C-alpha cells in the first residue's frame, strides 16, 4: 500500500494532530498515531479542552481529588489540562529526541482572556512552562497586538512558543520579527538557542469561510469564481515572507548560534465547505520546513487518498498575488476580513474557555457531593497516566 503520510513527511511537512484528550492518551491512541501515521506533534486549544472535559468519566478520579482539596475552578482547569499536556509530552518524546528537538512538541495555550494583556500573558506562559516541566512543550500565545511583545519576552526567557491565531500577512511579518527579537534577547540572557523552538500558526480554512461568505453575497460570476482560493493564496504568500526572513543576515547570525527557524504551521486545515476536497489544505500547502496540524479525520483522509507533490507553494507567488488583486477588484476588503477573523478567533477561544470553566465547576460540585467517585475505568486511567509519566 502507498504510504501517503510517509510521502508527505518526506516532502518536508511535519504532521501534527490538532486534538488532545484523556481518552486518546489512556487508550494509547496518540502513541499509535505517532508510531503508525508519522505523527510528530500535537496542538491543543480551549475548544479542544472544553470538548475533552465534557466527557467527565475520564476525569472523575482527578476531579474528586481536586474537589476534596477545595481547589477553585481556575486552578482545577489548570491541573486537568496540564496533566494531559504533560502526559502527551511524554508520549511524543521519542519524536522530539529523533528530530533533535525540532518536533515531538505539544502545545498548550495561555488563558485566552489574557489575549490583550501583555504582562499577564508572559506571567501565564512562565507558569505553564514551570508547571508542565517538559522540554518538548510549546506555550501558545495569540498574535494580537498585545501578544507580540509577550512572544518576544517569553522567548527571551528560553521558553518555546507556538504563536497562534495568525490570519494576515502583515501580522505574520510582525510575528517573525517578534521571534527574532526574542531569540536575540535569549542569546544575550545566556540561553542555549538550540533548545528553544517556535512555530507560527497561520490559520487557513477560516479565511475561505469568511471570504466565500462575502463572495456569495456579492453574487457576480466574477466573485463566485474566486471561492475557495483566498486561504491557500494567503498561506502561499506567507511562505514567501518566511523564505525572505529566514534567509536574511539577521537570521543567519542566530542560526550560527544554534537557533532553529520558526516554522510556518498551517492550522485550521479541515475543510469547512463540503464542496471542497477534504484534503485541499494539505495538498496545496506542501513545502519544506512546514508543519500541518490536522484533525484525526484529515490525517486518515490523507492516508487514504492524499496526493503528495513536491513543493506546491514555491513558484505559486505570482498566481497567489493575482487572487488578491482579483478579490480587490470585486471589492472584498481583505484588511477587514483579517480584522474580523482575529477578533472572532479570540472571542471563540474565550467562549470555549468560559464553557470549560463552567463544565469543570459543575463537575467539581458533583464530585464534592460524592457523585464523582472514580470507578474501575477511571482508576485504570490514573494508573495508566502514572505509568506514562503524568502526575497531578
TrEMBL record:
Which reactions fall under this protein's catalytic activity?
Answer: D-sedoheptulose 7-phosphate + D-glyceraldehyde 3-phosphate = D-erythrose 4-phosphate + beta-D-fructose 6-phosphate
Gene3D superfamilies to which the protein is assigned, alphabetical: Aldolase class I (3.20.20.70)
Q: Which UniProt keywords apply?
A: Cytoplasm, Pentose shunt, Schiff base, Transferase
| Location of this chain's protein in the cell | Cytoplasm
Which GO terms of the molecular function aspect are on file?
Answer: transaldolase activity
Q: Does the keyword Hydrolase apply?
A: no
Which pathway is this protein engaged in?
A: Carbohydrate degradation; pentose phosphate pathway; D-glyceraldehyde 3-phosphate and beta-D-fructose 6-phosphate from D-ribose 5-phosphate and D-xylulose 5-phosphate (non-oxidative stage): step 2/3
Against InterPro entries, the record matches this protein to: Aldolase_TIM, TAL/FSA, Transaldolase_2, Transaldolase_AS
The EC number(s) given in the record are: 2.2.1.2
Q: Which SUPFAM superfamilies match?
A: Aldolase (SSF51569)
Recorded superkingdom? Bacteria
Q: Where is this region: Disordered?
A: 368-392
List the GO biological process terms. Answer: carbohydrate metabolic process; pentose-phosphate shunt
Q: Where is the composition biased (Low complexity)?
A: 377-392
Keyword set includes Transferase: yes
Q: Which GO terms describe its cellular component?
A: cytoplasm
Catalytic EC class: transferase
Q: Kindly identify the residues recorded as the active site.
A: 140
Q: Which family does it belong to?
A: Belongs to the transaldolase family. Type 2 subfamily.
The record describes the protein's role as: Transaldolase is important for the balance of metabolites in the pentose-phosphate pathway.
- UniProt-recorded name of the protein: Transaldolase
Organism whose genome encodes this protein: Micromonospora costi
Read off the lineage from the record: Bacteria, Bacillati, Actinomycetota, Actinomycetes, Micromonosporales
Amino acid at each position: 500500500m502507498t504510504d501517503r503520510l510517509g510521502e508527505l513527511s518526506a516532502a518536508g511537512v511535519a504532521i501534527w494532530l490538532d486534538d488532545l484528550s484523556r481518552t486518546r492518551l489512556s487508550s494509547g491512541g496518540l502513541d499509535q498515531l505517532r508510531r503508525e501515521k508519522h505523527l510528530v506533534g500535537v496542538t491543543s486549544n480551549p475548544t479542544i479542552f472544553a470538548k475533552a472535559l465534557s466527557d467527565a468519566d475520564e476525569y472523575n478520579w482527578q476531579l474528586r481529588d481536586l474537589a476534596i482539596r477545595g481547589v477553585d475552578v481556575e486552578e482545577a482547569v489548570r491541573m486537568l489540562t496540564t496533566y494531559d499536556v504533560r502526559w502527551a509530552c511524554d508520549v511524543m518524546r521519542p519524536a522530539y529526541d529523533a528530530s533533535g528537538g525540532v518536533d515531538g512538541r505539544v502545545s498548550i495555550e495561555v488563558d485566552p482572556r489574557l489575549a490583550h494583556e501583555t504582562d499577564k500573558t508572559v506571567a501565564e506562559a512562565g507558569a505553564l512552562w514551570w508547571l508542565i516541566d517538559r522540554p518538548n512543550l510549546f506555550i501558545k500565545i495569540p498574535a494580537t497586538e498585545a501578544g507580540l511583545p509577550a512572544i518576544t519576552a517569553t522567548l527571551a526567557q528560553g521558553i518555546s512558543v507556538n504563536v497562534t491565531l495568525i490570519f494576515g500577512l502583515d501580522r505574520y511579518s510582525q510575528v517573525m520579527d517578534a521571534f527574532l527579537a526574542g531569540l536575540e534577547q535569549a542569546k544575550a540572557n545566556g540561553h542555549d538557542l538550540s533548545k528553544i523552538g517556535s512555530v507560527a500558526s497561520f490559520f487557513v480554512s477560516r479565511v475561505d469561510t469568511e471570504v466565500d461568505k462575502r463572495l456569495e453575497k456579492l453574487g457576480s460570476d466574477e466573485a463566485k469564481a474566486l471561492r475557495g482560493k483566498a486561504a491557500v493564496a494567503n498561506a502561499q504568500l506567507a511562505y514567501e515572507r518566511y523564505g525572505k526572513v529566514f534567509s536574511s543576515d539577521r537570521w543567519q547570525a542566530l542560526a550560527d548560534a544554534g537557533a532553529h527557524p520558526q516554522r510556518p504551521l498551517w492550522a485550521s486545515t479541515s475543510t469547512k465547505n463540503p464542496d471542497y476536497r477534504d484534503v485541499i489544505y494539505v495538498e496545496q500547502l506542501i513545502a519544506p520546513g512546514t508543519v500541518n496540524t490536522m484533525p484525526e479525520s484529515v490525517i486518515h483522509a490523507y492516508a487514504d487518498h492524499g496526493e503528495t507533490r513536491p513543493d506546491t507553494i514555491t513558484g505559486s507567488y505570482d498566481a497567489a498575488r493575482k487572487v488578491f488583486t482579483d478579490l480587490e477588484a470585486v471589492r472584498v476588503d481583505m484588511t477587514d476580513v483579517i480584522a474580523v477573523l482575529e477578533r472572532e478567533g479570540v472571542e471563540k477561544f474565550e467562549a470555549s474557555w468560559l464553557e470549560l470553566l463552567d463544565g469543570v465547576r459543575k463537575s467539581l460540585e458533583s464530585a464534592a457531593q460524592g457523585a464523582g467517585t472514580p470507578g474501575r475505568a477511571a482508576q485504570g486511567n490514573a494508573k495508566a497516566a502514572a505509568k506514562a509519566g503524568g502526575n497531578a
